[in-house]
Every structure is written in structure tokens, then in C-alpha cells.
Amino acid sequence: MFYISIAELTALCGMLYMRQDMATFGDIGVAAAFNILSALIFLIAFAFLRLQPFNDRVYFPKWYLKGLRSSPSHSGTFVTKIVNLDWRAYIRFLNWVPEALKMPEPELIDHAGLDSAAYLRIYLLGYNCTLYFLDLPLLKIFVPVTLLSWAILVPVNWTNNTLAVLAQGDEKITFSNIDKLSISNVPHGSPRFCTHVVMAYVFTFWTCYTLMKEYEIIAAMRLHFLASEKRRPVQFTVLVRNVPPDPDESVSECVEHFFLVNHPDHYLTHQVVINANKLAKLVEEKKKKENWLDYYQLKYSRNQAKRPMTKTGFLGLCGDKVDGIDYQTAEIERLTQEIEAERERVKTDPNCIMPTAFVSFKTRWGAAVCAQTQQSRNPTLWLTEWAAEPRDVFWANLAIPYVSITIRKLIAAVAFFFLTFFFMIPVSAVQSLANIESIEKRKFIKSFIQGVLPGLALKIFLIVLLPTILMMMSKFEGFLSISALERRAALRYYLFNFVNVFLLHLFRLYVIVQCRIPETLGVAIPMKATFFITYVMVDGWAGIAGEILRLKPLIFFHLKNFFLVKTEKDREEAMDPGSIGFNTGEPQIQLYFLLGLVYAVVTPIFLPFILVFFALAYMVFRHATRYNPPPLSLSLHSMHLSCVDDFPIQIQLTLYSLSLVQIINVYNQEYESAAAFWPDVHGLIIYALIFSQIVLMGLMGRKVAMTKKAQASIKPGLSMRHVLCLGWKLVILLSVALCVFAFLRIQQYSHSTAALPQKFRSLTYDFNSNPKNVDRVKFSIYVHSEPGFVFDESTTRSTVFFDRQLRNSIKVAWGEASMIQAERILFEEALQDPANQRFVLLSDSCVPLYNFSYIYNYLMGSPRSFVDSFLDKKDVRYNPQMSPAISKQKWRKGSKWVTLIRRHAEEVDDETVFPIFEKFCKRRPPVDASKGRKNLKLQKQHNCIPDEHYFQTLLSMKDLENELERRTVTYTVWNQSTTNMDNGGWHPFTFSYADAGSEQIKKIKDINHVYYETEYRTEW
After folding, report:
1. What are the residue ranges of helices labelled H in 804-862?
2. What is the rounded CA–CA span in Å between residue 406 and residue 705?
3. Which of 111-125, 260-274, 514-528 has the lowest mean pLDDT?
4. What is the C-alpha to C-alpha distance for residues 866 and 895, in angstroms, rounded to an integer?
5. Which among 479, 471, 491 is positioned nearest to 393, based on CA atoms?
6. Any bridge partners for residue 805, and if so which?
7. CA angle 358, 364, 367 (to 5 degrees)
8. What residue stretches are annotated with the CSC1/OSCA1-like N-terminal transmembrane domain (predicted)?
9. Is the pLDDT reported for residue 361 higher than 90?
10. What is the predicted pLDDT for the residue at 635?
């Protein structure tokens, strides 16, 4: 019997029931109207409830937890404490919609984290695809796919009568006008199938291209999110597991000795993990007692005539009646003593020491090497990996032996297999009850059993039981971070949905009625689209709108507030902000991606329903992240190519963030993984794309049955089946090629330029560093300033320099080796970020001549370093004592303001040239005419200025001069002086505003060569 039970789907979500025959446009319209009305009711109810003062903590809990929001005023009548009586607020009650849609992404990242921003991008999965009237980027994949499907495929499908002809020949086959819009209505062997094949290629190419672009964006966001973070211990820390026991040493001593021997230059310290579960329970109990003490003290302050009393028994319901304040104070003192005793015990008890430790290194590079290399010949010992942040660590799994992890994973995989595939049995068994003769006579009971019970069982299991079971499986497997637990649970949740929601409903007919499967496969699959259309409307539209209402937290908060809340701390705990729920939310999104990609060619009418879901979900979750931010603190810097002021260019160094309304106003993330889940999202969409191609191949294999005449005109080796197989291979090849191309583009666009200014205190032209329309992911900045000096609001006018000074800066004197030592420190710090590919030493006295894009493309477009380097033919600078380590033939001179590619910057970390410079390249003391003969002695000394020779000589000794542009990118004038003191040429000409006219700027821009007299050489 070939019809689709729409009641089966609507009962699945428990919200709508439809009759058990083929859905028509009217049926879908009624279902859509019902679900749209439900969604609107939820949204309007939310808009009304969020205005009421007594609901403020339900809809804005995150701001209370951060201490940035206080309860509405309690003054006035009792009614005003509960209900908002300001009529103007109800006129603007829908203002949250445009506010949620207009919030910029950079503000979201700082407030809610990169995980939240990346999660929202799953709904968008787009870039430069914009609904301009809302300023909302929307659904890069499905908007073009929907437009093309409706413009091309819908007319091709509609203008046939295949289903009508089949229905006349077999009364068991039923269809509706919706099915006439699908591929089922195209006759067998029709050349119109070429249109579907071509569109499948177009959709595949567009999806792969969109994924590639989105991966580039997320990769750059993650890279710069990590690079722009302030230094935290977790960035220098590695988790070490399975430390082997040593009879002569403790675990701590063993770890210390191991890393001192194997990582002597980078090891800093370590912390052994201790099993302190009992201590944690005591601390938690003490917090509860302190909360009770606060409650009794508050109660006593309101009525000092009577001391609060309590009972010492269970929950204060039985036992002796004593003074509440005195009792809780005594209990706190007792617990404090027990906590101290337990703390000392766990430090010395060998049974509490786990074979696990957090090891910290002096540099990120040292930590990276340790985390990504094998530390021992035995691959099961001294296991290292990057340490998760403290909030993300799942402490209970740290002591699991490595050998048992493989066994645990195997057990979990087998358990998940049985959980997934054996769940079909009870659902199918319940549905088969409808075939019992006594039940078949009662149509209502039959419809209820066949349509409601299986779906109801599945829905209860999906919402209530399955997430908990899958998280337990992930914990059993031994994952060490909450983020890893949720990613594994999300993958399995998706697989369960794929089998029991998608495949089970798609192929259930062929399990029950195993006849004429080949002949009806091409018709039945697209006709199942009505089932999933209703699924999207009920579970997607109404379900996602219900998310913003927060009905369960709303009810529980008021119940707790009325019966259980005693103190402000209790009120905070009652808010229950929750989190995004990646382990359940992301699989739902992936299921909709799968449905959209599978039915894009098969049943185009399905796509608008997917679009509505993604748009509504984006608005809801973005509201959950909305927030009115304070002024941004931006880390920006203006690059210097010239000492002439033109139009300031602002180079954005870091990715900024402030916030978005569930993610910003409500959800309080437990951890921050910096979008580590995105490869999983990307991979599942690729798998969905591949599955959609397999489905289309199956359809084409049956429906493109060519006539004998057509087969005779084509060689046997070029049949339609062979053409389809070749097309499938080309799709795979195209997907792989696009993924490789995406990787190469990621490598290209993740490159950054590190600006390395040196300054003691004030910054002369910091007002040039105001951010305007600059790229946010291509530059970073490191400032070497006087030790202890901090750039903040009191020391600089530009937020670009805030907290960008190095913590390990040194005292610098002009003309001394400390100058190049400071430069080496700058390069060492900047090299820790792998995104930095160009390293530019800057002066604070220079201002830009060209705009940002020009400078960035100029530097990144050249494979060479820019180093002002030439032969120094005078004997006054070179000290013969430098020989033979530094020969005179390799001695070079030039400007210190160099621009190095990464490979050349790594050469700065040398231990050969620098010690010689430090010892023999010294500035001659000033000549004093009154000294007489002593003055002559001074004049014979070598006058070596280290920073004018170091880079040039170092690169010359490394035989790298052929890889250099031996010129600077800074325009300077040495044959003119601003003051009499500079007449000797010790300082270049300083331009004033009067000198920086448009004509002067044009003359400088017209310069196209540099001539070096000592070498008779022209550069550029």
C-alpha cells in the first residue's frame, strides 16, 4: 500500500494530527498555518514575559551572573514589582527582533566566546549573501539552491503527467499536487533527467565552495582568537598521562626529572593531579552552611528582637532546637578544620596521587613540541596532549589507564550499535499492532497506534533519555574534556537520528511490504518529502520558537523562588541559564542539512521550509546572544611605510568581540574550545552531500530506463548507468579537489604581519591608530617599552596599544647592544604565533604613506625580506677583534627598520653573531675638546652602533643576501637636518605637518629606485 502517513510525523512532535492519506497543498497549508501560529504565539508570549520585572532573571540570567545587571526597582506598589505598567514598553515589545539581527559578530566573540559565534555561523553557513533590508547574512548554501530549484526544476517536474498515468493503471498508487512538483512526476527515460543531473552538479559545486570559504573564515577566526588572547597558563601547559611508577621517586619527582632531562631549555614547572573528591565535598558542604548563615543573619537583621532558631536533624525538620546563627557558625568552623586536615592528607597520601600531571613550559613553542611528539619508546607511557582550560577539564577521567581506553571505546561502540539498530524493533512492533484484525475495525485506535505511539516513543527517547545515555557513553570512553565529550555525543546523536528518524521513515515501507521495490523506489522516496516537511514545521518552526520562551526554566525559577530561595546566592542558582547544548543542537542542524541536500533535486518544494527553520533559529539564538555593549577596546596599529602623513591606515591585529540575546542574554557556556567542533560540522555536511549523491544515483538507476532505440544509438560502454557512475566519480574528485584548495586558501589567508615597534614611553603619533574599515585578521602587534611601563588609558590615546607591551622587556640605551637584544626579544615573541609571516620593525615617529590594503599586499606579495644593507668601506665601524667569526667581507651597514619573512626572522635567534656584537661592537664615548691627548685616544677607538649593523651582517653571514630586497620600505632624508644638533647626520630629517603636503607626498610616491654609492648598485 503506497501512501504516506502524515499523522506519523506530526504525532512524533505531539503537536498536530493529520489524516492518514496523501498530503495536499491544503494539508501542508493547514499544517504550516498551525505551526506558524504556534511560533508566533511563542514569540509574542516571550516578548510580553521578558518585559515583566519578576521574569528578568529568567530571560537575562547571564548578565546577573556577570554582575552587569541588577534587579528592577522594588519601589512602588506590589503590582509594579511584578508587572511592567509602562505602556510605552509594550509598543516597543518587538524591538528585540531588529536588535538581535543587527548585532555585529566581533562584539559577540568577546562576550560569549568563539564557540557561540561559530555555532551561530552553522545556521548561516554563508558569507556575502545578505538580505540587505535586514543587514542579515543568510544561508549561503540553501538560498541560491532554493532559487535555482524553483526556477528550473519545479517547472520541469510540474509539466509532466507521469503520476496521473501510473494512478490510472494501479489504484493503490495515490499522489497529490505536491508530488507533481517532485522528480517522481518525470517519465522513465525522459531526457529531462539531464536537467536534474546538471543541477545536482551545480548544487554540489556550490556546497563545496561554500564550505571551503566558511572553513577559511572559521580557521582565521580561531587562529586570531587564540593569538589575541592575553597570556594564560593553559597556552603554555601540556597534560601528561600514564606516568610510569618509580619505586625510588614520587610521581612529582619523576615528572620533574623526566622533563628536565628531555626538555631542559623549555620546561618550567608542573602540577601533579590529586584525587581530592572528599575535599571537594567538604568545600561544597561548607558553602551550603555559609549560605544558611547568610540567611539567618539576614533574617535577624530584619527582626533583632528575636534570634532565628533551627533544628539540628535532617533538613532542619527534626532534632534539638538551637540558635541558627550560632549553630551554622560552629558548623563552618568544624568544616574549616576538616578541610585543612583533608588538604594536608591528600598532599601526602600516595593513594591520592594520580599518574597524571599538568606540565608548564617557558614558551608556547616548547609546549607545542611536547604536546605533539611521542615522549617515550613505549607508546603507552608519558602520553602528552594540549591541556584543556580548567573549566573544560573532565577531572574524573584523568586517572583512566591508557590500555583500558581502547577497550572502553570498543564497548561503547558495540553498545551504541545495539542502541541504534535495535530501537527500530519496538517502534515497528508497536506500529504492527495496527494490523491486528480487532484493531483494524476501530480506525481511530488504529491511527493512534500507527501514527502516535511510535513517534511518541521516539520523541520521548530523543529528548529525555538519549542525550543522557550518549553522554554517559562518552564519559565511559575516557575523554578528558567536556568539549570532547559533547562532540562525541553530538556525532552519535546525529547517527541515531540518521538511522531512526531519516532511514527508518524513508525505507519502512519496504521492510513491511517487500514487493515491487525496484519499480516503486523512484516514486516512493520523493513522496516521503511530505513526511519530512511536516517534521521540519513541527520540530523546527514551533520547536525552535519554543526555545526562546524558556517555559521550563520560567516555571522552575518561580517555584524555586517561592519555596526554596533564601539568599541572593539561592536566587542565582535558581536562574539556570543553561548552555547552547551542542551535543543535541548541532545534530538537529545536521539532520536538516541532510534533508535539504537530499531533497534539493528530488523535491524542491521542501527547501523553503528548511530556509524558514534556519532563519528563525538564527534569530532566536542570536537574540539569546544580544547585548548593548560598552565602547570597544580595539587592538589596532598603523603600519609605517613613510615618515609622511597621508591618510592613516589602521591595521587590525586581533579579533574583537563583545556580545550578541539566548547566547548573550541567557546561555552561560561551561567552557571555550575556540570553535574546535567546526571540523566535525564540516565533515558531516560533506557526508550528507555524498549521501545525497547516492540517493540520486539510486533514483536515476531506476527512472532513467532507456528505450531500445536509444540504447542502440549509444555504445554499450557509454550507457546511462556508466555515465552516472562516471559522474559520481567526478563528484568525489571535485569534493576532494575543493577540500585541498580550501586548505591551500586557508594557508594563504591565515598569514599575518607582526608589527614590532620599539619605544621607551610616550608614542608620538598614536592618534594615527584609530580603526576604520580595516582587516581584522591579518596583523598583530608587539611593543617593546621600558620595563614596568604599561600602555593603557593614562599613557596613550589609542586603544591599539593597550596591554601590547612585552612583559620581559629590558632597559635599552641608544647605541648599545641592548638595542639589538630588545629587537631579538620582539622577534622571539612574534615567532610564537605561526600566523605571523612578515615581521616589521617600526618606529613610533613614522606615519603611513599608503592605505592598509596596499601595504599588506605589498609585503605579503614579495617573497623577499626588505633590509637596507650595503658595504661599509670605512674602518671606523668594524672592529678587527670580531674576526674570524665575523669577517670584514661580510660586514654590512644599514637601517634597523627591517621587514623580514618568517624564515629570515627565525635566523635572528642566533648564538654566534650576537655575543660578538655584544662584546666588540660598542659606541665610542662622546669626544670632549678639553681632554687634549685623551681626546686623540678616544678618536682612535672604533665607533660601532650595533643596531645599524646586526641584521645586515647576520643575514650576510648566512649567505641570504640573494633572498633580500636590499633596501628599506621607509622613506628617510639624511642630507637635511631639523636642528643644529643633527647636522652631523645622526638623525634623519623630521617632517612637520607643513612638509606633508599633497605635492610632497606625490613626489615621494613617484620615487622608483634607490642608489647605493658604495656599491654602485641600484635597487628597486
Report:
1. 818-830, 852-861
2. 49
3. 514-528
4. 10
5. 479
6. 783
7. 40
8. 28-214
9. yes
10. 27
How far is Cα 1020 from Cα 1014, in angstroms, rounded to an integer? 17
Residues 580-618: tens digit of each pLDDT: 777 888 888 888 888 888 888 888 888 888 888 877 777
Report the alpha-carbon distance of residue 296 to residue 784 in Å, rounded: 55
Contact assessment for residue 232 and residue 662, using Cβ atoms and an 8 Å cutoff: no
Q: Are 300 and 308 in contact (CB under 8 A)?
A: yes
639, 649 contact by CB (below 8 A): yes
Q: Rg for the chain (alpha carbons), in Å?
A: 36
In one-letter notation, the amino acid at residue 378 is N
Question: Angle formed by the axes of helices 582-602 and 482-497, to 10°?
Answer: 40
The whole-angstrom separation of Cα 605 and Cα 610 is 10
- Give the residue ranges of DSSP H helices in 303-383: 324-348, 364-371
Strand (E) or helix (H) holding 137:
strand 136-137
Residues 21 and 391: their CA atoms lie apart, in Å, by 52
Percent above pLDDT 90 for the chain: 4
Give the SS3 label for residue 525: helix
| Local structure of 270: helix, strand or coil | strand
Q: What is the 3-state secondary structure (H, E, C) of 180-199?
A: HHCHHHCCCCCCCHHHHHHH
Length of the chain: 1020
Return d(Cα 951, Cα 961) in angstroms, integer. Answer: 11
β-sheet with 779-781: strand ranges across: 779-781, 752-758, 836-843, 899-901, 865-866, 964-965
The C-alpha atoms of residue 693 and residue 201 are separated, in whole angstroms, by 9
Q: H or E segment at 240?
A: strand 237-241
Dump the DSSP string for 721-738: HHHHHHHHHHHHHHHHHH
551-574 pLDDT per residue, tens: 777 777 777 777 667 666 667 666
Amino acid identity of residue 115, one-letter, is D
Cell numbers at 783, concatenated? 611593543
Q: Which residues pair with 964 in a beta bridge?
A: 865
| Contact in structure between 664 and 993 (CB atoms under 8 Å) | no
The residues, ordered by sequence, that sit 6+ positions from 906 with a Cβ below 8 Å of its Cβ are: 831
Query: Are 928 and 867 contacting, i.e. CB atoms less than 8 angstroms apart?
Result: no
> Which of 780, 779, 786 is closest to 763 using CA atoms?
786
Question: Residue 137 forms beta bridges with which residues?
Answer: 130
In the beta sheet, which residues pair with residue 267?
361
Inter-CA distances, 989 with 664, 974, 979, 980, 995, Å = 52, 6, 9, 11, 11
Which range is least confidently modeled, 435-439, 813-817, 921-925, 953-957?
Answer: 435-439
Identify the pLDDT of residue 313.
Answer: 73
What is the spatial distance between Cα 545 and Cα 835, in angstroms, rounded to a whole number?
41
Give me the DSSP letters along 127-188.
Answer: SS-EETTTTEE--TTHHHHHHHIIIIIHHHHHT--HHHHHHHH-TTB---TTGGGSGGGSPT
Q: Do the beta carbons of residue 666 and residue 60 sit within 8 Å?
A: yes
904: left (phi over 0), alpha (psi -120 to 50) or beta: alpha
Residue tagged 556580545 (cell numbers): 659
d(CA 526, CA 519): 14
User: Bridge partners of 847?
Assistant: 642, 643
Beta-carbon contacts of residue 1005 (< 8 Å; ≥ 6 apart): 849
Bin 909: left if φ > 0, else alpha if -120 < ψ < 50, else beta.
Answer: beta
The residue type of 570 is D
Written as one letter, the residue type at 116 is S
Crossing angle of the two packed helices 582-602 and 678-703, in degrees rounded to 10: 30
- 849 CB-near residues (< 8 Å, 6+ apart): 641, 642, 644, 646, 971, 1001, 1004, 1005
* Helices of type H across 388-502: 402-421, 424-432, 437-440, 443-447, 453-460, 466-477, 482-497
Spatial CA neighbour of 537 closest among 4, 3, 5, 6: 6
d(CA 476, CA 811): 54
